[in-house]
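Entry 12.
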Amino acid sequence: MSLSFDLICVGSGPAAATVAVTCAKAGWNVAIVESQDFGGTCALHGCNPKKVFTNAAALFDRFQRSQEKLTRGKARIEWSDLVAFQHEFTDPVREKSEEKFEQRGIKTFHGVARFVGERIIEVGEQRLEARRIFLGVGARPTPLKIIGNELAITSDDFMELAELPARVLFLGGGFISFEFAHLAARVGSQVTISDRHELPLRSFDPDLVRLLMKSSQEAGIDIRNETEARQIERSANGLRVTLTTKTGDKLIDVDLVVNSGGRVPDLAGLNLEAGSIAHGKRGVQVNEFLQSTTNPAVYAGGDCADTGVQMLAPTANESARIAAKNLLAGEPATAVDYGPVPQVVFSVPPLAAVGMSEADARNKGLEIDIRYEDLSTKGEVRKLCSSTAGCKLIIDRRSDRILGAHLLGPHADEVINVFALAIRQKLTAAELKSMLFTYPTMTAEYCRLL
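Predicted 3D structure (tokens):
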């Protein structure tokens, strides 16, 4: 015998939780299925706990750089205390999320959801049926396909380590590697990043990436470009990794290998074919209304949906808002519009971007002004005890509109939101420059290039 609902949400992260709660408030009979801890990646393994770690690196770096001018004494990051501190944020989510769903009248189920029909799923031996199904299962670490891959840990594991080893290798040159490498280096580990591309962080401006690489190397991080891991094996002294380079194979001895090659939609085990749900490497194929292109009873959002945008918490939240609106409307009526989506690498210092890159604008044949400056020696940067900063703005020469903004330096993670708003509202450089920003601040420094 199956249980019937108006809506079944699979997953309990930001996207699925938003849809479940919104529809339950509207009087729908809602069920939510979670195969792991209730709360989702962002709250338990992603954005929120990660920020605790990256903020520790930034605080420590600032203290170190202030010693010549302002402070005395020594400081260090106590790894066990840092892990315990992040648990102050993750443990309440694990303990309270399911209870909060139930308080809202949402029926909760533990286990892997498996489609057995277009509107029917099984969770263990329990069969559930619904008028509508929302998929918000998020993403999982990209599988490492090399010999000895079982000897590497994921970024999820990294944040739960009892202690940080002396020698750490991060595989991949993306967000995760740079964020955690900057922390590990400041804890005192010998840190290496290997990346198979000519430059890491390929979705960011190359000039600013080079500045960040220089700063990273000064912090003691060994960055090896055009280098790819081929094998991991145990050795008498820890782990030995074979790295393939343009000049041949190189061996590196480390204590820990972190698979930080990004994340992929967590669709394994869902048996989507039985639900007539088309999907690919980027996730469930959805239309502009977040509805499955092949099963109109199914909607998807967040990291497991192929929406054409990066896997970020704000885009997951927006996809959930639109999906819930369309579900309650009874038909797909509102298309999702993410607008310009800012993205940040929480390295030290942070790297941020929104809108078009210089390459994008040139490829489209636009007449543009590129306003770029290395701000590393500017007084405002030095006052904040930082050593590296830069800014590149992409301006349409004909309309004076801001097309893209790329920032590296103190508070770049916050200031990028000013440029995101300006791009969304189609402001010109002159209009934004006419704004009187507080001074002295990094907002005023970055906007000086307008």
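Annotation: The chain has a mean pLDDT of 94. Residues 84 and 246 are 42 Å apart (CA to CA).
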